[in-house]
Write a structure and sequence with these properties.
globular, FAD/NAD(P)-binding domain, alpha/beta
């Protein structure tokens, strides 16, 4: 079976669904391929900076019925027991991926986006045209392909992307809990071998998502043992997790998390969200970046269509815009990771932040963007 479309999006997460809604609003024919059914949970920090709100308004996305938590404050705690508090300049909100992805999916369906639940097997670019084949035997021809399939995929292996062969020492673990944790707070907690982000989402549920070094993790028999022997070394984490009651039957996990540099464009596929670059969770802004990247690529596709510019011009402009908006954030995240994994450097960094709170404010400023500007 074979289909033709203007734009094919591989992956129906936050970036893919947002791009589908944007391109659909511009009048493009869009097909989105997603291997999983909705709704489903994902390993994610589930905090979104308010910088996305003007863009959501333009797209006609109204999240108030999902009852997101309103987050105004940040707390950072170190493995040594010190902590620093700060006000988030723009603030943000907490929503589970279960809720927001399902909402965007239904919105896209209602607006006429063709969403097909099949797994992509192969992507080929020949003579200014893509052919995308699924494991179900369906073939799609498309003028543009957007890669929105997440952090790591078999597609990356088949495309032979550069980062895929580099060592990926991290895994991520996430679960929801019932807890008395403050609704307006996002807490970032450093511990030996990783980081843990904690904040409320809808329905008074606490999201706990942490990044663990695999070499450290495998020394323990299970997740509970790892938490008790490693995460509990951070007193703040110990107090929160001991008091909380898990809602999930079992935590979700994903492995081979890589923060190596990726290409925003590879083999003419326009990559968005985590597929283009994964920001360190310590920066707490990956969801907003995924949403923003969907806007950038959608506007550039429209620009090329209107101005009849070359594909190379589109790809070069997208790469430049990605680097301008997100390059420094990704780099700072990698630097912070290296500092906080070294005990001596971590102690010096925490002492500096404690003595000079403006340092933390500068870090927040450089890892969060400004409100996304929309054209009239």
């Amino acid at each position: 079976m074979q289909f033709q479309t203007e734009i094919l999006i591989i992956g129906g997460g936050l970036a893919g669904l947002t791009a589908a809604l944007h391109l659909n609003k511009l009048g493009f024919e869009v097909v989105l391929l997603e291997k999983s059914s909705y709704p489903h949970h994902k390993v994610c920090g589930e905090y979104i900076s308010n910088e996305v709100l003007p863009y959501f308004t333009w797209l006609g996305i109204d999240l108030k019925n999902l009852a997101p938590t309103q987050i105004t404050n940040l707390q950072f705690t170190s493995a040594s027991g010190k902590y620093v508090n700060a006000v988030l300049p723009l603030g943000g909100f907490g929503l589970s991926r279960y809720s927001i992805d399902y909402y965007l999916y239904n919105l896209a369906i209602n607006r006429g986006v063709n969403i097909i639940h099949q797994k992509v097997d192969r992507v080929v670019y020949v003579e200014d045209q893509f052919v995308v084949e699924t494991t179900s035997g369906t073939s799609f021809e498309a003028r543009y392909v957007l890669g929105a399939y997440g952090k790591r995929s078999a597609i990356d292996v088949k495309l032979e992307r550069n980062f895929i062969n580099q060592k990926s020492p991290y895994l991520a673990i996430k679960a929801h809990y019932k807890s008395n944790f403050p609704n307006n707070l996002v807490s970032l907690n450093n511990y030996s071998g990783g980081y843990c982000g904690i904040s409320k989402v809808e329905n008074d549920v606490l999201n706990v998502c942490y990044l663990a070094n695999y070499e450290s993790f495998k020394k323990h028999k299970d997740i509970q043992a790892y938490q008790e022997n490693v995460l509990y070394q951070n007193k703040n984490l110990k107090n929160i997790l001991q008091e909380a009651e898990m809602v999930f039957d079992a935590p979700l996990t994903i492995s081979q998390i890589s923060f190596h540099k990726k290409e925003p464009v590879f083999n003419h596929v326009l990559m968005i969200g985590d597929t283009a670059g994964l920001i360190h969770p310590l920066c707490g802004n990956g969801m907003a970046m995924a949403i923003h990247s969907a806007k950038i690529v959608s506007e550039l596709i429209q620009k090329r269509t209107e101005n009849k510019t070359s594909r190379n011009s589109l790809e070069n402009e997208y790469t430049a815009n990605w680097q301008k908006l997100f390059g420094s954030r990704l780099k700072l995240g990698r630097i912070l990771s290296m500092i906080l994994q070294h005990k001596t450097y971590e102690r010096l960094a925490i002492n500096s932040i404690t003595a000079m709170p403006f340092v933390l404010r500068k870090i927040i400023k450089h890892t969060h963007g400004q409100p996304i500007k929309m054209k009239n």
